[in-house]
Amino acid sequence: MVTHFDHADGPNPADELATPLDLLLTGSALGMGRRMLPNNSWARLAVHLAQRPRVVGARASALRHELTDIAFGRSRRAPVKADKRFADPAWQGNPILKRSMQAYLAAGETAEELLTDAGLDWKDEQWMRFVIDNILEGLSPSNNPLLNPLGWKALVETGGGSAIRGLRRFAGDMASAPRVPAMVEPDAFTVGSDVAATAGSVVLRTEVFELIQYTPRTPRVRTVPLLMVPPVINKFYIMDIAPHRSMIEYFLAQGQQVFAISWRNPTAAQRDWGFDTYGQAIIDALGAVETITGSDRTHLQASCSGGILAAMTAAHLTAIGQDHRLAGLTLMVTVLDQARAGFAAAAIDEETAKVAIAASQRKGYLDGRSLAEVFAWLRPTDLVWRYWVNNYLQGRAPAAFDVLFWNADTTRMAAALHRDMVLMGVHNSLTVPGAVSMLGTPVDLSTVTVDSYVVAGLADHISPWQACYRSARLLGSKDSRFALSTSGHIAALVNPPGNPKAAYRIGAPAAADPTAWVDDAEQRSDSWWPDFAGWLADRSGPERDAPAALGSAELPPREPAPGTYVLAH
Fold it and tell me: What is the value of pTM for the model shown?
């Protein structure tokens, strides 16, 4: 059965309430606490509401009447079914807990209505919505140790042991960045065993990256290989997260020759690594793949920030007359067009960018743990307060989840790359031909005519799907395919076939309006992986016998996958 793509299932197509790279990188450098401090947006909200006394009065009167009904037990207000914070029966059965929950929900709804009533411009509205949402999430009675029934039950069941364990966990988490509740234990998984476990070998190591060639899983393979470029702000193994859920494993089973880049985790000594360093690294990896396979064409697949670098590198290869080396360009949850992408565009300006760049330049890098803190506060209910209750109020260890283990296995970003990424995002440079360069050539994405396949997630809070769609249209591909999964940022990637709840829409990004495309695109059930595997196969030439050994005479295997760079912290 196909899941319907109703607008209610994901973000409203008119409101791109997600957070692309420039906010993540400036917020990580400056700290998210700065976003909560009063500023001109607060003042304009107050002025706008003061100019609407009747509206404010009506909202206040309605809230007062509902609080009276709540106090006398007459209110029928209840949380929506999807709100798991109040799932325990005590929130309905205990009169004190029920009233505290209802009062909180009523006040929260009034605050959100007043923000809408204020009629702010979109920048102020986005800023204040972020502030109000985080305040409301923090004030939930489910976070209060004196009210949450789960905490009391754990206290009784453990004879007070849960409180001691919770305090210890709290002290440990607050002692060092990212200073949010731990989402997974640091020893929950072992890299190379539980995650990043697909067999292969490192066939090239440079100062910047390791290149991994994976062991074929079929007797015959496609002639044209696939090179996977991971993000530069996380480790590569989200593409090889676990057996039976690994993208790399799946593509190998389809007869594809697969190579992957594993970036080195930079320190202050690599502060000068910028766009050109990483663009040249992709070209070096491309050359190694050609040497090992004998193919003069390679598919380039990249995700998130890696997709930005791959697209710029493709434009560079086009500019120097070497685009024939690319058999196809695949971009997954990649934003090339940063225009009006929710809170990010509202929060970032030239001055903020300069301060953030200076902060990373002083250290020589952007600390990945700071980035993890930003990610967490963008979804506070799921990534902060849920673990606040589990870890501290209940005194329990967080459940072992491989994706969260990968998310916590952070990397640093070299100061120069941080600078380049932030300035590119602030100026939306990739939408203007020649506004940014790669390896000395101006970048014009419209010149990239190689076939392209672009993937986005309907519920993605990092790379809004509308921005991914616009990004697909920036490319000059004559044959372009856009796949919109029902999933979020990571689940859109870790999307193995067989999930009865999964669905996606597929088609050429021909319509200028993303919403019009959604209405007209073909709807399919399950994962987009099989469609992409077929797309790859059509462009990967004839089959040949699988290589008997990995590497080549010039580039012999150095050590087993996943290599050593992925192990650095």
Answer: 0.88
